[in-house]
């Protein structure tokens, strides 16, 4: 009789643990990773150029004018800045 009681208690504790973990951890609602390479998170696109060298020139120009900038890794190359710097970046690139 004690073996049945112990088995019921073990399954009850495991069940309660499973419910507690489900409640506190929840399900996996993380966003799907960007496999295409088109989501740049917080960065905003200010220019698209066909070559890596052209992208590097624009990034250097932006950095020389105090704008934090980077480029994407794949063609067509996107020059990106933080949203607060978009207006300044566009002014620099027009000049």
TrEMBL record:
Keyword Transmembrane helix among record annotations: yes
Membrane spanning residue stretches: 6-25
Keywords from the named record: Membrane, Transmembrane, Transmembrane helix
Domain of life: Bacteria
The protein's name: Sporulation related domain-containing protein
Protein species of origin: Lentzea roselyniae
């Amino acid at each position: 009789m004690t073996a049945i009681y112990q088995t019921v208690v073990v399954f009850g504790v495991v069940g309660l643990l499973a419910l507690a973990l489900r409640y506190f951890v929840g399900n996996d609602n993380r966003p799907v990773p960007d496999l295409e390479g088109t989501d740049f998170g917080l960065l905003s696109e200010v220019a698209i150029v066909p070559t890596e060298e052209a992208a590097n020139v624009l990034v250097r120009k932006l950095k020389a004018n105090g704008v934090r900038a980077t480029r994407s890794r794949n063609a067509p190359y996107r020059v990106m800045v933080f949203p607060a710097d978009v207006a300044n970046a566009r002014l620099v690139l027009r000049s």
